[in-house]
Write a structure and sequence with these properties.
By secondary structure, this protein is of the alpha/beta class. It has helices at about 15-20, 35-45, 80-90, 115-120, 140-149, and strands at about 10-15, 25, 55-60, 70-75, 125-130.
Amino acid sequence: MLIPKDIDFNSQQISYAELTAKFDLRFEIPDEFTPDFHLLERIMIGIDTWNRGEINLYGFEETRNKDEYVLDILNVQGINKFLTLFRFIELEEFKIQDFVILTEFNGLSFSEIDRIFQRRLRECSLNIYYMYKGLIDQKDIPYVEKLLS
């Protein structure tokens, strides 16, 4: 049984670059994935994603070891936007398309865009919300996942 005083719920604003450097991220890549090109264009223009609450990730922290941070990201709201960044920046799985304002970037991969825009994508803000999984009984995890989603 989850007791409120035992809950260790954390939240922080963090850049994409900090998140991928600090945490060993674990997540499932859904079979169906559609890149959010509108999100990429907003970030590259300079629209602040954190103030708009654009990218919210929810998950469980797997360990309390200060040298190792493992975050299991739940496949809920926010995961598609995160995966758009991850698959574009880290994996270069797709090229930009459907940009309306920055049309000159259509057809380019991450490594082909100017460094200033690469930096904007890496430094965009995300909100992460996570709980230490060790405090939760296995039987309570589905309930907590539902709360976080």
